[in-house]
Inverse folding.
């Protein structure tokens, strides 16, 4: 019962933050298929101030922490060892992920970033799940208790790069969709920033991109696509992307 209450409270908090949040996913891809990815989550202060009202000026917090997920596993080794082997294998894939969180009511900066260096695009983990996985290890919760409703995967084969989102729980998707609809009604009339941006950098020039809203930069080796965050949460598959690069040796 306590766990469910915490989940409900956390979910409501997520909805409030969603209404005042900017998320950016950045990938740098090297010629050999290695690279780096970072997902940054920034609280948009003007939006949050509208929602928090008089509570905004009462904030009194300062935290600035950085850790590697693998160190977290070591810290809670006793708890980690009690999880199923299948769950442990999932967690271990996140070992090299770096997490940085800053919450400063004085500087009015609330940011979280999750980054990973990879040797192959297929090794990229779903960084959007990492906060839940940290709690799972710390509190000894099974992955089956999570309420994730989609997975994000990446591939880079030949000249084709793909970002693929797959729905894994249609019931939970419907719940999320309905909750966000309520949120939209509640915050109707507010001028809120709720952006979700993909920034991708490639080793060769871009030949084509599947999303017509994508903006290819002047160097033709990078692009950006911007979405409304709530739209992405209601329809995660809308962020699917295929990018075709020019063949090697073509200038």
């Amino acid at each position: 019962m306590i766990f469910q209450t915490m989940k409900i409270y956390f979910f409501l908090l997520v909805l409030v933050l969603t209404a005042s949040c900017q998320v950016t996913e950045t990938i740098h891809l090297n010629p050999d298929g290695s690279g780096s990815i970072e997902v940054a989550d920034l609280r948009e202060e003007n939006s949050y101030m509208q929602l928090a009202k008089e509570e905004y000026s009462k904030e009194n917090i300062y935290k600035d922490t950085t850790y590697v997920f693998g160190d977290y596993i070591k810290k809670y080794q006793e708890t980690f060892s009690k999880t199923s082997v299948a769950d442990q294998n999932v967690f271990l894939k996140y070992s090299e992920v770096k997490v940085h969180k800053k919450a400063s009511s004085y500087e009015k900066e609330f940011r979280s970033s999750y980054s990973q260096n990879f040797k192959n695009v297929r090794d990229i983990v779903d960084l959007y799940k990492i906060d839940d996985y940290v709690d799972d290890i710390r509190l000894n919760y099974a992955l089956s208790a999570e309420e994730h409703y989609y997975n994000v995967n990446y591939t880079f084969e030949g000249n084709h790069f793909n970002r693929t989102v797959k729905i894994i729980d249609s019931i939970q998707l419907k719940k999320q969709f309905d909750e966000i609809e309520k949120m939209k009604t509640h915050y109707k009339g507010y001028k809120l920033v709720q952006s979700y941006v993909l920034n991708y950098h490639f080793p060769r020039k871009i030949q084509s991109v599947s999303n017509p809203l994508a903006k290819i930069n002047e160097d033709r080796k990078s692009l950006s696509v911007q979405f409304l965050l709530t739209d992405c949460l209601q329809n995660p598959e809308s962020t699917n992307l295929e990018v075709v690069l020019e063949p090697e040796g073509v200038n």
In short: The first helix runs from residue 2 to 18. The two ends are 61 Å apart (CA to CA).
